Amino acid sequence: MTRISGRPAISMEHVYGMTLRVARWHVGEAGTPLLFLNGIGADIAAAAPLLAQIAGREVWTVDMPGVGGSPDALLPYGAPTMAAVVMEIAGRLGHKALDVAGFSWGGALAQQVAIQFPGRVRRLVLMATTPTVTAPGIGWAALLDEDMLASGLKLPTATPLGLAYQTMAMAGWTSAAMLPQLRNVPVLVLMGERDGVVPACHGQAITELVDGALLEVVPGSHLFPFTHAAATAERISAFLDREPVKQPHSGRQAAA
Question: What pLDDT shows up at residue 136?
Answer without folding.
Answer: 42
